Structures are given as C-alpha cells and as structure tokens.
DNA sequence: GTTGAACTTAACGTTAACGTAAATGGTATA
DNA sequence: TATACCATTTACGTTAACGTTAAGTTCAAC
C-alpha cells in the first residue's frame, strides 16, 4: 500500500527515534509487514502505536501496555473470556483511581509549601536590608 | 541517642530492604550519623526518608526528589534564592497538573472500553448458544 | 550505474534503582 | 568467650527501555 508509512515517518509522527519503533516490534507491540525487507506500517499499526504511546504517557510499563493492547485485540469469543477481560479492565481502573487520589494529595501538599514560601517572600520584601 | 533507629528498623518501617536505605545514603538523600560504624537515623532522617518515599509513590525519580528535598532544606537566605526556589516549585506544580489531566483522560477512555465490553457481555448472555 | 540517504540485522553499551554475594567487624546473650 | 545475629564496605549482577556502532542492503536521484 502506498499509504503505509516507513519507519522514519512513524518515528517522526510520534517524535521518537526509529530505534524505539524497532524495539516495539522486537517485544511484540506491533507487527508491521515488509516490502523488500523494509518495514511498512498500516493504519492499524499506527493505531496500535498510538495506544502504546498513550499508555506510556500515563506511566505504564511496556509489558503492561502489551497486556492492555491484547485486551483490545481480543475478539473474546466466549463469555468467560469476556469476563476475564473485564476483570482486568476494572483492576486497571482502580489503579488509575488510586493514582489520581495520590496525585491530588501531592498537589495539595505542594500548594501549601508554595504558600509558605510566598509568605516568606512577602515578609522579606517588606523588610529593609 | 537511644531513640535513633538502626538501619533494619528503618527498612522495616518503610517496608523496603536495608539495601534501599544504604543506596539512598549513597546518592545523598539522607545522612545518618554513625555510632561505632553503625548507621543511626534521627527523627530528621526519618522525616527526609518519608518525603523520599512519598515522592517515589508519586512517580518521581530519585534525582528529582533530591532536588525537591533540597528546596525544603534550604533556608533560602536571600530573596533571589527564594524566588528561584518558588519558580521550581511552580514548575513542579504545573507538571502535576498535567499528569492529573492525562490520568483523567485515561480514566474516561478506559471507562468507555469497559462499557463497550459490558454491552457485549449483556448481548451474549441474552443470546442462546 | 553510481552515489548517498534511508533501511536492515546483530550485538554491545547505558542508566536507574536496587539485588546479591563476599569478606569482615560489632553486639547480645547464655 | 563462644555463638548467633546484625552491621559494615566493596563490588559485581539485573531489568527496562532504549542508544550506539558496525556491516551490509535498498531506494531515489542524477
């Protein structure tokens, strides 16, 4: 396909090096096909990579991301499989919730530091040398 | 001081190995004093370590944490120093805000996946084999 | 058809944050 | 004081996620 992308274009698109993309293939995150030995990335491949990079941004490890992606790939043929899939999803959700709470705590804490510093600053500016 | 803690106690307290604590001293995150060559951790040391572990929980790197801790240590003697300190603090805050936004996006996204799966599940359960 | 950029695989190097092992010394208790 | 346990430093090992050659192949342009 002429609309498929070469590795350099993919790297450019996601603002990473080609090495990163090759590595992602190495560990099975994408499976671009070859044309005369050169990798070509279809629209589907690009979508997968988007998911990978989004996952990374959220601080998940590649191995985790691999699992999550497989969930999406899965056309879960049975109800049982589907329920396992959902259970995993729910666990992830809880994890995200925990992270959110912790980050909010950190924010509060840093805010109070900043305020203390601010007060210090005002005090000192008011004082003569 | 008799109320100071030995390394094993500190490790126990924070649920890590003694190696971790020694490492943190190695890279300058704490400076316990010695008694007959053995490390002893004062209350201040413990407080510092608390900050370190909290930082870790929030996903910061030790090097970052080192910087942040130094901000707290600093009794910023001049207004200039104080302003630099605050500027750093504000940058950190913005970073945290960004992380919060991203995490919330992820949450939304995962929620919609989960819902899709849920619908699938209901549909299949309604159908006969 | 030759050059030069972009591609390939293979393999070794790097950083963070510890794990683990060896050799040695201090401490508590019977 | 002998035993057992805890501590010390030194130093090499480990994992993740790439970086960095090296040596060769293919494409695009002239």
Q: Report the sheet-strand fraction of chain A.
A: under 5%
Query: How many discrete domains of chain A?
Result: 2
User: pLDDT under 50 segments of chain A (min length 5)?
Assistant: none
Radius of gyration of chain A: 23 Å
Largest sheet of chain A: 2 strands, antiparallel
- Strand tally of chain A: 2
| CATH topology annotation of the largest domain in chain A | Multidrug-efflux Transporter Regulator, Chain: A, Domain 2
CATH class of the largest domain in chain A: Mainly Alpha
Shape of chain A: flat
Topology diagram in text:
2 copies of one chain form a homodimer.
Chain A (H helix, E strand, L loop, with lengths): L6 H8 L3 H9 L6 E3 L2 E3 L2 H15 L4 H12 L5 H48 L3
Antiparallel strand pairs in A: 1-2
Helix pairs in contact in A: 1-2, 3-4
Chain A binds a DNA duplex (30 and 30 nucleotides) through α2.
Keywords (chains A, B): DNA-binding, Repressor, Transcription, Transcription regulation
GO molecular function (chains A, B): DNA binding; DNA-binding transcription factor activity
Organism (chains A, B): Halobacillus alkaliphilus
In short:
The structure is a homodimer of 129-residue chains. By secondary structure, the first copy, chain A, is mainly α. Helices cover 71% and strands 5% of the residues of chain A.
């Amino acid at each position: 396909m002429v609309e498929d992308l070469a590795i350099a274009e993919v790297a450019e698109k996601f603002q990473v090096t080609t090495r990163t993309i090759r590595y992602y293939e190495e560990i099975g995150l994408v499976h671009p096909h070859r044309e005369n030995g050169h990798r070509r990335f279809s629209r589907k491949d690009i979508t997968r990579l988007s998911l990978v990079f989004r996952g990374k941004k959220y601080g998940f490890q590649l191995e985790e991301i691999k699992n999550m992606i497989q969930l999406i790939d899965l056309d879960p043929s049975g109800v049982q499989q589907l329920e396992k899939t959902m259970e995993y999803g729910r666990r992830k959700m809880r994890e995200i919730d925990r992270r959110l709470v912790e980050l909010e705590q950190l924010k509060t804490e840093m805010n109070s530091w900043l305020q203390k510093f601010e007060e210090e600053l005002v005090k000192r500016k008011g004082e003569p040398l």
